[in-house]
Amino acid sequence: MVTYEQIFENNKKWVAEMTARDADFFEKLSRDQTPDYLYIGCSDSRVPANEIMGLEPGDVFVHRNVANLVNNTDLNVMSVINFAVKHLDVKHIIVCGHYDCGGVKAAMIPKDMGILNPWLRTIRDVYRMHATELDAITDERLRYNRLVELNVKEQAINVIKTASVQKHYKKKGFPIVHGWVFDLHTGILIDLEINFKSILKDIQKIYNLTGIDSEHNEDGE
Length: 221
Ligand code: CO
Fold this sequence. Notes:
Layout: H1 4-21, H2 25-31, E1 37-42, H3 49-53, E2 60-65, H4 75-86, E3 92-98, H5 102-107, H6 117-129, H7 131-135, H8 140-160, H9 163-172, E4 176-182, E5 189-191, H10 196-202, H11 204-207
Parallel strand pairs: 1-2, 1-3, 3-4
Antiparallel strand pairs: 4-5
This protein binds cobalt (II) ion.
C-alpha cells in the first residue's frame, strides 16, 4: 500500500519532473483550460482517463461514476456535459466503459443492492433493451463483455439526446460523440465506432431539442 505521507512525497517529485520538462508548466496550467475532449468513464481505479489517452493535465475534462452512466436526472453528469459543450467548446465527447466492470457485473445479478439499486437499474434497462441479443450469447463472459459495450453505446446515445449537444452541433458541427471500451487485459482502447450522425438523425423524431424542425434543415442550419 502507498502510505498517506508518500502521496505528498510523490507530489513533490511530480512537480519537480514537470518543471524540469517545462519551467513554465504550472504558470501555463494556471492560466485557463481549453480541453478538446470530455471523457465520461467509470470510477474504477484501474482506468485512469489521462494515462490511457496519453494526455497531459489541461487536455481532457473528466467525469467518472460507477459504470460510466449518463442518467438524464443526474445533475452532476448533466452539468458536466452542459459546461463542457457550452463553455469549454469541446470537440469530442467520449463515453468510455471497460471490460470487467464491477458495476455492469453487479447489474447482471438479480439481487437487492440497497442504494445501488436505482443506479444499477439503468444498466439492467440496457440489458432488457438488448435481451434478445444478450440471451443468445451462451458464454457468460462474452455476454458480460457485450453488455459493457451495449451500455457504452446507450450512454453515448443519452449524451446525444441532450439539448446542449444537439444545439451546439447544429450551430458549429461539433461535438462528436464517441463510445470506447478499455480492455484491462491488454491496455488497449477499442473504438466502438458508433455512428454519431446516424444516431442523431434517428432520434430526431422524439428527441430533437434544437427548437428547429430537422426535416427542413438537412444541411444542418
Ligand atoms: Co467499471
